[in-house]
Each structure stands twice: as structure tokens, then as C-alpha cells.
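A further point concerns the way the authors explain their paired sequence and structure data. An entry of this sort, consisting of the sequence and the corresponding C-alpha cells, reads as follows:
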Amino acid sequence: MQPSSTQSTLKILAFGAGAIGTYIGGSLVLAGHQVVFVEQLTVADELRVRGLKLDLTLDKRRNTKDISVLEPSSFVIAPSLEKALRYGPFDVALFALKSFDTESALADMKPFADKMPPILCLSNGVDNEPMIARALGSDKVIYGTVTTAIGRRAAGDIVLEKLRGVGVAAGHAFSEKLAAVLDGAYLNCRLYANAQDMKWSKMLTNLIANPTSAILNMTAAEIFANKKLYKLEIDMLKECLAVMKAQNIQVVDLPGTPVKALAFATKLPLWLSKPFLGRAAGSGRGAKMPSFHIDLYSNRGKSEVVYLHGAVVRAGEKAHVATPVNKVLTDTLMSLTRKEVPLEEYAHQPEKLIARVSSNV
């Protein structure tokens, strides 16, 4: 599909005004592009009144000490995809939903497949882009990733916590132009030759101290302070690296994220690697708990562990690579998520989790 715009200004469809959607979409509005957000009715009504707020003061290149307030007149927000598409045709769509919401979002898109632009998928995990391709066609998906850390104060109200960047995979006819546009909006965009290298490298960083934090109700710092739990983290990462190697997927550095160094650290003695991996687990999160913990304790009834550690397990089965640690972590967290066992079952009981992993290795 060719871009609809003939000039440098793009018309962009953004799914949701969450942390990533507001940061990317809002930055594009600030750069002069036309952005239409799709949000649920109550949120759409609220944002039509107060607009968007982006605290980007951390980025010195923007040369501002004030929060950027985007007045409602500077963007469009629609309560449904059908209404949003009336403002088209669009050059590209931004998609950064939780992986467990992808299937339902695609069900809403299918009736409008012929009107959908290419979708830049910024969601975590490696399953979302193939799902989009199956539902809408391979020409409708552009592989992407975000390493910049964004805090969400409320719908449409975000703060830049750690500036890293955005990755876009080459291979789509619109990839190069899109990368240039994102980079021009101060988003630190880098183009990657291999989509799988980029997505799996990002997923590797998402694995660290994520399910263990949720299962044990412990911070990343507490997990890394426990010698046995730290070894569990290393074993989990080694499994992912083995699965990547079996698929001929390379570890690549991402914007502001030295993933190669992280992978190399798994080969070092535990005492030597701990300081580096400890920083990798904590940096960008600040005092926040990892995402799996937030989802579990908010009683969402869903967890992205199926799309991260679970994806490692599924790929391992196909490649005949054993992934027992990732499987136990996935199964245990899903049991807690589905309320098959109470949250207290493993809370602050690392020995119990370690024993369960040991019995399955």
C-alpha cells in the first residue's frame, strides 16, 4: 500500500492513548503530523475536553522545561475504529496494545481491512506481527519496538522517564520513510535489517525479573539479591538465547539498550554478571514493579507471560530446545492469574518456586 500523503506531513491512526500511544502519537502531533486516536467513549470524551499532556522535559533536545499540552483542536480522538476511519485515508497506524488484547483488536479491524493502512506494531513479544499479517495481510504490518521508558499518570497524560528510542524493521515499502519521520519527531528511531533479530532481542530484555516478581510479590532488587533466584534468572535467559540460536536469530543492540552485553553477561560467573544484570532489570522501571506484577495484582485476569516466556517455550518445542525454567514460570504465573491458586501460595517464598523449577528441570 502506498502512503496517502504526497507531502512530508503524515496522517496517522493511533490505537489508544495509553503510555506508548500518547508518547509516540503526541510527539508526532508536536512535529506537525495529523494524528487520530481511537479510544473508548468515556476516555475519548475526557480527552476532547482536556487534551493530552506530555512531560518530555527529560529530553534536552526539545529545549523546554514545561509540560507539553496538546489542545483538543490539535488532534482527533474517536470512540470507535469505524468513526476514526472517516478521517482517512491514513499513511500508517500505531499499535502498542498489550499482547493479550491483540486478538480482540484485530477482530474489530477485520471488517475494515480494505481501509486499514500499514500497522507499525510496537507491542512486546514476537506473536503480534504474525497475528496482524494473518488477519489483514503481510503488507499491512511493519515490525517495531520501543525501548524508551514512559510513565502513565492518566489516560493521555504521560511522562518521559528514560529516553532510549524506537526500532523499525526494514522490508516494508514504507519502513524507511516512517523511520525518518519518527526520528524527526525526536523519537530516536533506528532502522533494523532483520525484524526477528530486533523483536527477539527486545523480548530478551522483557524477560528479566518479570514473572518472578509477580509470582513471589518481590521487587527486582529483592530477586537479584537472592543468589538462587538470580541463578534462576540467568537460566531463564540462557534458554531464550538457546532458542534464538536454534532459529538463527541474532542478538542485536536496541536504541539505548546494550542487549549484546546483556547476552554476554549470561556467560560470566554469577558474581561478575550480577551488577550488570541488576542494572538492566531496574533501570527504566524506577520504583515501579514489573508489568506482570502490575497485571496480576490489578486482577485483570490476563498476563503477557504467555506471549513472552510462553513464546520461548513454544519456539523451543519446535526447535527441540528444552525450556523448563520458562515453562514453569509461565505455568505458575498463569495459575495465579486464573486464580487456580491464591496469590499467597508463592508470595515471598522463593524456596517454594525454586523447588518447583528444580523438580521440572
Remarks:
- The radius of gyration is 20 Å.
